[in-house]
Write a structure and sequence with these properties.
The complex is a heterodimer of chains A (310) and B (311). Chain A has 310 residues and is mainly alpha-helical. In chain A, helix 4 runs parallel beside helix 7 (167-191) and helix 7 (167-191) crosses helix 9. In chain A, 74% of the residues lie in helices and 1% in strands. Chain A has a two-stranded antiparallel ribbon with strand order 1-2. Chain B is mostly helical and 311 residues long. Chain B folds into two domains: 31-80, no CATH class; 87-300, MetI-like (MetI-like fold, Orthogonal Bundle), CATH 1.10.3720.10. Helix content of chain B is 72%, strand content 0%. In chain B, helix 4 (61-67) packs across helix 5 (73-80), helix 7 (120-145) packs antiparallel against helix 9 and helix 9 (172-196) crosses helix 11 (213-241). The chains are: A mainly alpha (310), B mainly alpha (311).
């Protein structure tokens, strides 16, 4: 059946993949399993995928074209191309300051979330103690609730403490989902480290602090890195919480873009916002591509599911 | 906790045994490592949340005068002010179909793509891409791509499917598109991982007994997948339910997509009525809990147990 390759189009990669797999472990396959790939359903799936990607790529490309285009009103492509919108956006919105704020917030959130989250994840992974279930639930709640439901009371508290529109408030609100997130990502990483290594260190007289700095931390670096990058993605992309407490001096990139789009009277020109959006997306893509080298998305999601169920 | 954590070097017999007994239950010095995280959870989550709930019972003078129900004015206002109350229905009309679509469309796709094939990693990476777009770029892109002068309408007119450009943005549809684009990859990844958690030998056994693919799907895969479907539905629903930027940017913020989070923000940012904003936020939480409870109830009638695989 491996020779029976479909002649055309979309089904081809599918079939080729199957034959490769067949060659690899032909014994593990039940006879006639190929019949599952009934043609209509295959077409349905590929058509759905294609429609999704047409939208996705259309959205991406049209924003990029718009950010370089001049005089794009009622034609397929803009009349002329320019890079002027980027320098324009840089000056109009004070991008240097916005990017500075975004990075400061992201870095501080990562550092604090890791410092707080990793020890807690260690205890949750290794120990049993009274009220462990309640504590786990407490850490999971902020991730399960939509940000705006706890964001509004939280922002009210921030304003009451006089922290409204400050950088401190932006960092504090972003910690709320980030700390649980670090705990959730780090717990499986710690679980997979062989506890006998720590026990050996303890028996040789190392204190808990020493076990942490000399034994666990070096082993945990990949996990910490993965968690940090994911927190970075979440913090840079977090709109609702930041938006509720930030002001002109503490807007992150995504909030600044929203404010520019909803500015009264629609005074901002569309390509200016597009160029800002492109800068944002390119940054996020670079971060995410780095992140995907460390964690596979499905593996992470599987862990999330498991920890949600207990 | 104070006894075991105190630096008790002077070991009298009784404290030593208390220490020992506590340590046997897992209470010892190392629990201090939990304290910073607990402190944060309480200070930044539990306290503000309880404060917010308390705030809902302290309505502003204007609300009290308008609805005249004392401490419950905010809630009375929420249910009687149709401008606010209707937003529940508007939010549901948006979030439920989108969450259902994301889950139902993910199942056949995840099913088709669960085996290894060339380019699978590429496809997974491409599916994660929308996460990098963020709501604002998605909104901006939809406005340009699917707008009246956009490529999509232009193409459809060119090939003669339609005469007039379709109204795809600045209305209900625009928000649906934006929610599907951001929610579908998430649902797909979750369902794929649930599907890979089902032991393939169970299906192989069904096949040996002569079940065709429809029977295998209906009798074997679907019951095993049901808990995963419920969880995925809940998570995508929560994502779609709290939609806020896209409802404003690609939707019709004062009409068909006047969702609850917009109402909450209106009370918070524009009217500075913090008690009312908290009330809407609390009501959002309650409405969401009701939906989750219904889904979990449905799940409780389905098969509960091992799926045989790694999940």
């Amino acid at each position: 059946m491996a020779t029976q390759t479909a002649p055309i189009g979309v089904r081809q990669p599918d079939l080729r993949g199957r034959s490769v797999r067949r060659a690899k472990n032909a014994a593990a396959r039940a006879p006639g399993e190929r019949s599952l790939a009934a043609a209509p359903s295959t077409w349905f799936v590929w058509a759905g995928t294609a429609a999704f990607f047409i939208f996705l790529i259309g959205i991406l490309v049209s924003v990029v074209v718009d950010s370089f285009g001049k005089g794009w009103f009622s034609s397929w492509l803009p009349e002329t191309f320019t890079t002027g919108w980027y320098s324009g956006a840089w000056d109009t919105f004070g991008m240097a300051q916005i990017i500075g704020v975004t990075l400061t917030v992201a870095v501080l959130v990562i550092v604090v979330a890791v410092l707080i989250g990793v020890p807690a994840a260690y205890l949750l992974a290794r120990r049993t103690f009274p009220f462990k279930k309640a504590v786990t639930l407490l850490f999971l709640l902020p991730v399960m609730m939509p940000p705006i439901t706890y964001g509004i009371p939280l922002a009210t508290v921030m304003y009451n403490f006089g922290l409204g529109r400050t950088l401190t408030a932006v960092i504090l609100v972003n910690l709320v989902p980030s700390v649980p997130f670090v705990i959730m990502t780090m717990t499986p990483f710690i679980e997979q480290i062989n506890p006998t290594i720590e026990n050996a260190a303890r028996m040789s007289g190392a204190s808990i602090a020493k076990v942490f700095t000399k034994i666990l931390f070096p082993l945990l670096i990949p996990g910490v890195l993965a968690a940090s990058i994911l927190v970075l993605v979440r913090t840079v992309g977090m709109f609702e919480l930041t938006f509720l407490v930030s002001g002109p001096q503490s807007d992150t990139l995504v909030v600044a873009m929203y404010r520019a789009m909803t500015a009264a009277g629609g005074g901002t020109e569309r390509p200016l916002i597009s160029s800002m959006a492109v800068v944002y997306t390119v940054t996020m893509m670079v971060i995410l591509i780095i992140a995907l080298r460390f964690v596979s998305p499905t593996q992470l999601v599987a862990r999330v599911k498991e920890s949600r169920e207990d | 906790m104070s006894a075991p954590t105190a630096p008790g070097r002077a070991r009298t017999r009784s404290t030593a045994s208390l220490r020992h007994r506590l340590a046997e239950r897992g209470v010892d010095k190392s629990l201090w490592m939990l304290v910073p995280a607990l402190f944060f959870a309480v200070a930044l989550f539990i306290y503000p949340f309880s404060y917010g709930i308390g705030l809902t019972f302290q309505p502003s003078a204007a609300m009290q005068e308008k609805w005249g129900a004392g401490v419950f004015s905010n809630y009375v206002g929420f249910f009687k002010d149709s401008f606010v109350f209707d937003s529940i229905w508007l939010t549901m009309r948006l979030a439920l179909p989108v969450a259902l679509f994301n889950v139902l469309a993910s199942v056949p796709m995840a099913f088709k793509l669960r085996r290894r094939f060339r380019g699978k990693k590429l496809l997974t990476t491409l599916l994660v891409l929308p996460i990098t777009l963020g709501t604002v770029l998605t909104a901006q892109g939809l406005l340009i791509f699917a707008g009246r002068q956009g490529w999509l309408n232009r193409f459809l007119i060119q090939i003669g499917v339609i005469d007039q450009p379709l109204a795809l943005v600045n209305n209900y549809l625009g928000v649906v598109f934006s929610l599907v684009i951001s929610g579908f990859p998430f649902a797909f990844l979750l369902i794929s991982s649930y599907l890979s958690g089902i032991d393939p030998s169970i299906e192989a056994a069904a096949k040996t007994m002569g079940a065709n693919w429809a029977q295998r799907f209906r009798r074997v895969i679907l019951p095993l997948l049901a808990p995963g479907l419920a969880t995925t539905f809940i998570l995508t629903f929560v994502l779609a339910f709290s939609v806020f930027p896209s409802a404003r940017l690609v939707g019709d913020a004062m009409g068909s997509t006047r969702v609850m989070s917009l109402m909450a923000f209106r009370a918070f940012g524009e009217q500075n009525d913090y008690p009312m904003a908290s009330t809407i936020a609390v009501m959002m939480g309650i409405v969401e809990l009701v939906v989750i409870a219904v889904v979990l109830l449905w799940r409780s009638f389905m098969y509960k147990g091992s799926t045989g695989g790694k999940g």
